[in-house]
Target: Holliday junction branch migration complex subunit RuvA
Amino acid sequence: MIAYIKGKLTSVQQETVIVDVQGIGYEIVCTNPFAFQASINQQVTISTYHYVREDTQILYGFQNDDEKLLFTKLITVSGIGPKGALAILGGADAGGLVNAIEREDDSFLTSLPGIGKKTARQMILDLKGKLPAVAPAADSTAETMETEQAAPEAIQETQEVLKSLGYTDKEIRAVASDLRKEKSGSTDELVRKALALLVEQ
Model:
């Protein structure tokens, strides 16, 4: 298995980054490739998960080991494959996701891309009590979630507005994590924030 890739970041694309390692370009699928934009043409180390099946081999890349560990846990849940796990991580930071699972917060989980009520309950059933080591710094109290992150309902409404404006799911996932970090805000405020972030990309 390939645990990490260390080399020169040569390209950042819509879904992937390419890292040159002694003349070999490794294409790595990432949650938000643009997070690596500042390191273009520089040496980077990207934590990876080597996904191998009979008909395919894909390298999935992560910004840190916590994100990678959470990815490996998510793909053990029935109904969640690598692409789905990557979309989930693009819609929430590791700490927020762990908190939601530990608190059995269905509304938060169902606001994530591709997660319905059935899958949300399966995530809670399979992962509750098994994730604290993934994000030990996360505060598990409901009060902290309410004061430090935007409400899941507002996030979901913002995503729908962005879709109606013509933005793709990939573009929306690229800014979703930043939106969740907003301490408060109405849907209108979050839409303005999202549009500003999308313009910067």
